[in-house]
Inverse folding.
């Protein structure tokens, strides 16, 4: 069994174990009741959304510096997986918000609105990547878009401290609350277990998505070279001149 | 368990979505690997001395 496959098995076991603990073993919250259990999937999803988009931004900077397409593969993996986890965080938040707040969504809330914007920005990033076939041009443009979109990450995180809204301040997310959380110990252990389990699953997904991006790039490059040589042959056939140089990349 | 519908919807979509995305990713990877292998074999057969020019 190779390392990535073993990591997948560990991720599966960790998610199943942490889920059983969070759903059936940890007691319900006194004020929020069982709806609070949704937090055990909402918070890890939100954290992994941040992490994924942070990785995309860093890989983008790395690409602009080194011009290495492997870093672009990391960036696209981060963006796609970040979109998935951010969508999960929004969904989990809505399912928790209805029984606890009384509403699924409130556009006036800065955390909710900036998170929706973050999702839209990275969906745009993924669509933007489809605008060009040239791998280096696409990687450079996407790196810039990814960096601009990343500006929203700290805005989302600190929105609960900067502005007033429905969303509560972090329970353990801020540095002063890591050692002194405002939730009971059992809840914190369940939450941290889910965060760890989801992070292992995220690592496995990132590796697999990176592998896919590399293979897709090789296939795309083969197709591009095939189109160039076909165009060259067509020009040679129509002009009767051998060794035509006029057909270049992007033709 | 109170608010069971919301808990099932919240957890179900997230864990189900995670499993579905992982499965889809493995499927995409298998398809891409097969296509890559086909291309490599084609390239090898073109490059081989037995291949008619």
């Amino acid at each position: 069994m190779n390392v990535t496959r073993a990591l997948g098995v560990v991720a599966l076991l960790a998610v199943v174990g942490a889920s059983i603990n969070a759903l059936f073993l940890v007691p319900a919250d006194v004020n929020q009741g069982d709806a609070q259990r949704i937090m055990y999937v909402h918070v890890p999803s939100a954290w992994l959304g941040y992490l994924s988009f942070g990785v995309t931004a860093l890989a983008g900077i790395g690409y602009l510096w080194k011009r290495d397409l492997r870093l672009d593969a990391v960036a696209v993996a981060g963006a796609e997986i970040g979109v998935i986890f951010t969508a999960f965080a929004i969904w989990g938040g809505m399912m928790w918000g209805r029984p606890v707040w009384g509403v699924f969504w409130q556009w006036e809330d800065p955390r909710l609105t900036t998170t929706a914007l973050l999702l839209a920005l990275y969906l745009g990033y993924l669509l933007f990547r489809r605008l060009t076939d040239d791998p280096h041009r696409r990687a450079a443009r996407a790196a810039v878009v990814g960096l601009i979109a990343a500006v929203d990450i700290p805005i989302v995180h600190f929105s609960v401290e900067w502005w007033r809204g429905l969303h509560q301040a972090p329970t353990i997310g801020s540095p002063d609350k890591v050692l002194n959380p405002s939730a009971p110990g059992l809840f914190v252990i369940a939450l941290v277990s889910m965060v760890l389990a989801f992070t292992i699953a995220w690592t496995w997904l990132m590796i697999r998505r990176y592998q896919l991006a590399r293979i897709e790039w090789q296939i795309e490059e083969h197709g591009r070279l095939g189109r160039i040589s076909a165009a060259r042959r067509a020009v040679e056939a129509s002009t009767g001149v051998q060794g035509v140089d006029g057909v270049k990349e992007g033709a | 368990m109170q608010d069971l519908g919301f808990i099932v919807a919240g957890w179900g979509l997230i864990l189900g979505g995670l499993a579905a995305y992982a499965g889809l990713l493995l499927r995409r990877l298998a398809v891409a690997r097969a296509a890559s292998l086909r291309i490599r074999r084609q390239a090898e057969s073109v490059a081989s001395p037995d291949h008619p020019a």
Chain A has a mean pLDDT of 89. The interface with chain B takes residues 8, 15, 19, 23, 28, 33-35, 37-38, 41-42, 45, 84, 87-88, 91-92, 95-96, 98-99, 201, 204-205, 208-209, 211-212, 215-216, 218-219, 222 of chain A (CB under 8 Å).
